[in-house]
Design brief:
18 helices; Chitobiase, domain 2; 564 residues; eight-stranded parallel β-barrel; TIM Barrel; binds ligand TNX; 19% strand
């Protein structure tokens, strides 16, 4: 791609960009694979829109929504027709208008846009491809295309250009921790809205943890009656404190179905996570019989502090396995995606060492320790393998945090590399699929600049002595990550993609959540979608200032200001 900056003199009249005097530069985020601009523009105001009837209904619906919005904001109606034989008509090149054509030769999720002064032709093979073409078109239009008020002063032109675009990775994800702090359905939808604009396609929804169980499970009502609420929360970084305020919440199955459908309309698949067999204190509080003998302290309580709880599931009991299969069964029935995340991280195995059921299970399975891998560690392998097999019977594949790689892991599991990149590199070399989400680049709960005095209290403040953070996860740091760096060429096909994780121990309000998400989410968009040769931090940052951050302002979304 020669240049991804579109000199859009046509946008010069846009008041909301505050740049009426000089031509605005727009830079599509994420940077497309190929974009060549030509001479002239095409006016979309009142343009007739034609959709290939071979496109699926969701695609046609998405085009209609675009047309309705364009009609509203531009003040002239654009109607959508679905004439038979459209593809052939377009081949003749004689017609005026905006055309959406199904073209099987376009890569999955990819799209092509060809704009002349008479017509714009969009080609895609899939629903996501159509959505992404529409997102790119929006980014070429005045900002008011995202609004709901007529902006008849604006020029509804797009530049003549040729775009062909495909994502670098199939998995472009964000993890949202709804356990440490709970985020309403509306807040989750707000995040999905922005993810869709930036062509992200997976929301990893962290739904269970020590500090709260967030998903309704019919067979185990106490998970939400009891496990969804804690009696207070530690204050700031003080481990011994407790604000004494009951805190919690959960999603009903109907709410979850609503979020799944909302995400699907935006091309986003939800990956639900039930974190097991550690991070289970909320479940243990709901059903203490799932715990280990002698577990202390008693009674169990939904945790009011952060950190790694030593109280874990008693996986030696068959009844615990049944609990897990029942829960995962309901989760699998609810979520249509192919992956269920089963956690697996940070499971201290001390309780298993003295629990008679766990020791009996270890003996029954003939598990022995070897080198770094203890018999208890192998017991966790057994749990992972059983859940993997159970979920396979429901047509689902598992993802686990990189701890699942310790010991033995059955083929077909996907490893999410979080403790740096080493786990991902190793897993890929062993033939497992991998999603890269290393703390070193992708942990957006970490602070965004080294000056801790200038940032809201975060997990970095908690763990750093003094006022200077050594390795902030700045916008530039996220942007600079290449998920394929260090991966030998032969293993690269196993890297499904990349994800940023937003853990929320120290994030209690939507404003703070948004501050941590943006604009780092746009950097994630670019590292997951764009080819490295098309990345350019300065141009990206310029585009944020000129266009993407004003868009967040328009939506009333908070974000961290750019460093000068
Ligand atoms: C580690 S990442 C965790 C989380 C914490 C996070 C804080 C992972 C699999 N486990 O439980 O919230 O660190 O950054």
């Amino acid at each position: 791609m020669k240049k991804i900056l579109i000199m859009a003199a046509l946008l010069a009249s846009l008041d909301c960009l505050g740049c009426a005097a000089k031509p605005a530069e727009i830079r599509i985020v994420p940077a497309p694979e190929n974009l060549e601009t030509g001479k002239g523009t095409l006016n979309l105001r009142g343009i007739s829109i034609n959709c290939d009837p071979a496109l699926d209904m969701p695609s046609i619906r998405a085009v209609r929504q675009f047309a309705d919005r364009l009609s509203l904001v531009s003040g002239r109606t654009s109607s959508v027709a679905t004439p038979i034989g459209l593809a052939r008509v377009v081949e003749n090149g004689k017609f005026k208008g905006l055309f959406f054509i199904k073209d099987a030769s376009v890569a999955p999720e990819g799209y092509r846009i060809s704009v002349t002064p008479r017509s714009a032709i969009v080609r895609a093979s899939s629903f996501n491809g159509v959505l992404y073409a529409l997102q790119t078109l929006r980014q070429m239009l005045p900002l008011s295309i995202y609004g709901t008020k007529p902006d008849t002063d604006a020029k509804w032109n797009i530049p003549c250009c040729e775009i062909s675009d495909t994502p670098r990775f199939a998995y472009r994800g964000l993890m949202l921790d709804c356990c440490r702090h709970f985020w309403s359905v509306d807040e989750v939808k707000k995040v999905l809205d922005v993810m869709a604009i930036y062509k992200l396609n997976r929301l990893h929804w962290h739904l269970s943890d020590d500090q709260g169980w967030r998903i309704e499970i019919d067979k185990y009502p106490r998970l939400t009656e009891v496990g969804a609420f804690r009696n207070g929360t530690m204050i700031g970084g003080d481990w011994e404190s407790n604000d004494g305020i009951r805190y919690g919440g959960y999603y009903t199955k109907d709410q979850i179905r609503d979020v799944i459908a909302y995400a699907a309309e935006r091309g986003i698949t939800i990956v639900p996570e039930i974190d097991l067999p550690g991070h289970m204190q909320a479940a243990l509080t709901s059903y203490p019989e799932l715990g280990c003998a002698g577990s202390q302290p008693q009674p169990y309580e939904v945790w009011t502090r952060w950190g790694v709880s030593r109280q874990v599931l008693n996986v030696g009991k068959e009844s615990t396995m049944k609990f897990l299969e029942d829960v995962l069964g309901e989760v699998a029935d609810l979520f249509p995606g192919e992956y269920i995340h089963i956690g697996g991280d940070e499971c201290p195995r001390d309780e298993w060492k003295t629990d008679p059921d766990c020791q009996a299970k270890i003996a029954e399975l003939g598990l022995t320790g070897e080198g770094d891998i203890s018999a208890e560690s192998r017991l966790q392998n057994y749990v992972t393998a059983r859940m993997q097999k159970f979920l396979a019977s429901k047509g689902k594949k598992i993802i686990g945090w990189d701890e699942i790689l310790e010991g033995e892991l059955s083929p077909g599991a996907t490893v999410m590399s979080w403790r740096g990149t080493a786990g991902g590199i190793k897993a890929a070399s062993m033939g497992y699929d991998v999603i890269m989400a290393p703390t070193t680049y992708c942990y957006i709960d970490y602070v965004q600049s080294s000056d801790l005095t200038a940032e809201p209290f975060s997990i970095t403040h908690q763990w750093t002595k003094g006022d200077v953070a050594e390795r902030p996860i700045s916008l530039e740091r996220v942007y600079g990550y290449d998920p394929l760096a260090e991966i030998p060429a032969g293993d690269q096909s196993h890297i499904l993609g990349v994800q940023c994780n937003l853990w929320t121990e120290y994030i209690a309000t939507p404003e703070h959540l948004e501050y941590m998400l943006f604009p780092r989410l746009m950097a994630l968009s670019e590292i997951s979608w764009s080819k490295p040769e098309n990345k350019d931090f300065d141009a990206f940052k310029g585009g944020l200032a000129a266009r993407q951050l004003p868009l967040l302002d328009m939506f009333g979304i908070n974000y961290r200001k750019l460093d000068q």
